[in-house]
Amino acid sequence: MPTLLWLQAGACSGDSMSLLCANNPDLVEVLNNYQIELLWHPSLSPQSPEQLGHTIERINAGEQELTVLCIEGAILTGPEGTGMYDTLSGRPKMSVIEELAEKAHVVVAIGTCASFGGIPAASPNPTDATGMQFCREEHGGLLDSEWRSAAGLPVVNLPGCPVHPSTVIQALLGVLLGMPIELDGLNRPRMFYSSVVHQGCSRNEYHEFDVEEFAFGGKGCLFFNLGCQGPNTMSTCNIELWNGQNSKTRAGIPCFGCTSPLFPKEQDFFATAKIGDIPITLPLGVDRANYMAYKGLAKAATPKRLLDRKNEI
Ligand code: SF4
Q: What per-residue confidence (pLDDT) applies to 127?
């Protein structure tokens, strides 16, 4: 029977809460239908921390199989490399995680903090937080870049703040059932991280014709003025809607780029950094000169229904 152990390090529990919103299928259906034994989850397991300690001892002694180890949250290595800012049964959690990673068939980093360090690793990073195998966009976190699990895989990164519940469920099922998994250069499964948030956004036509909002509450695009990072952020947010209903950009909130290794960037989330009228960061892969020429033409050709904000979003 495949087994799953989920530990939290420097985390806010957001990814666990997101996981509980999975509904097609939900976590309980996955565990029951595929006969997966949940060895521990901090919010779902009735066992005491002492019993968790016993389970960890059995895994390390080779008496208990560990198929998938999920880590939620950044690894806190401070103060001064001791890891004592975050402990489990008196031991630095970073050491506990490192030992378990050696036993697990596959290790999965749940969320941006576990993948890249995320919010805890943002400057000034007072706890010396890092990701499992990346620190921000640099290779090497708790584990070095050459590290591989028993299945021959690096840590599988599922970034997102939080990560989309369907991404977690589908990725976990894939690794628990031993299905092949193709990763990108940041060790994210291509299946979930090869399209940008902009794809599928209901404000897309406004973007194409450069109908942009200057204040919140409108129907236009949020890219030019209100900080949207949707054209530069790999995620399924507008393809697989949250709770099957909505996404940030559909609801009028700019994408903050939360699946990116540099999240959170040191910039205002709600404003677009520009030089003059031109955003400093253009949509992924777009040439600046062509983009500006295209934008000028598109603006001149904007249909009246878009200027009147008649499109539904
Ligand atoms: S709001 Fe963001 S994601 Fe939506 S169309 Fe504009 S740039 Fe793209």
A: 98
